[in-house]
Amino acid sequence: MEDRVELLTRRLCLRRAREGDASVLFDNYTGVGNCSRFLQRDAHQDVDRTAAMLDKWCDSAWHEAGAPFSWVIATREEDEPIGVFVAIPQGHKIKIHYGIGERFWGRGLAVEAGHAAISALWRSPGAQRIWTVCDVEHVGSRRVLEKLGFHCEGTLRKWLVLPAFGDAARDCYVFSLTSRLSDELSAGAKPDEYR
């Protein structure tokens, strides 16, 4: 499982969950209303829900090849959990989701985490497409994806129901990165450029 490794960047560490992460991540991200506005979940009401999420996505899943998993995004110096980066393998495709705490917005940290995670995900066997969706009003997420080199493929009408906006399904942009040389990927070569 070449993709499930600890990743270090200049300011961040993307890693497996550790004891004590739940309460800090709850305070910084999962329990904060503004951080869940464009998610398919409400803010966590208690730290137990965050602990269960970490156990499932950021710990247990690291043992299961091909299972969806997540990195905890932590500051490198203080090792403070500030967000998550989720990867959902789907055959030759990998769907991603990510988020960091509001207190850390505007510093380029989501882009920094994204570069590290995407580089690792390209090492997944057979990976040819990394993709995600974001609400058409989620300007911050769209900017992050564009800085990561994702291409906007179009609009998915009535795609997601987001609790913060009620029961009506909302339009989303679909973004992707695809391997430039998919034939070489399937043959096991490592292309040096992606688009």
UniProtKB/TrEMBL annotation:
Recorded GO terms, molecular function?
A: protein N-terminal-serine acetyltransferase activity; protein-N-terminal-alanine acetyltransferase activity
Is Transmembrane found in the keyword set?
no
- The organism named in the record is Paraburkholderia megapolitana
User: Any idea where the N-acetyltransferase domain is?
Assistant: 12-172
Q: Does Transferase show up as a keyword for this record?
A: yes
Protein keywords = Transferase
Q: What are the top taxonomic ranks of the organism? A: Bacteria, Pseudomonadati, Pseudomonadota, Betaproteobacteria, Burkholderiales
* SUPFAM superfamilies attached to this UniProt entry: Acyl-CoA N-acyltransferases (Nat)
Q: Name one GO cellular component term.
A: cytoplasm
Annotated protein name in UniProt: Ribosomal-protein-alanine N-acetyltransferase
Instruction: Determine the domain of life of the protein's source.
Output: Bacteria
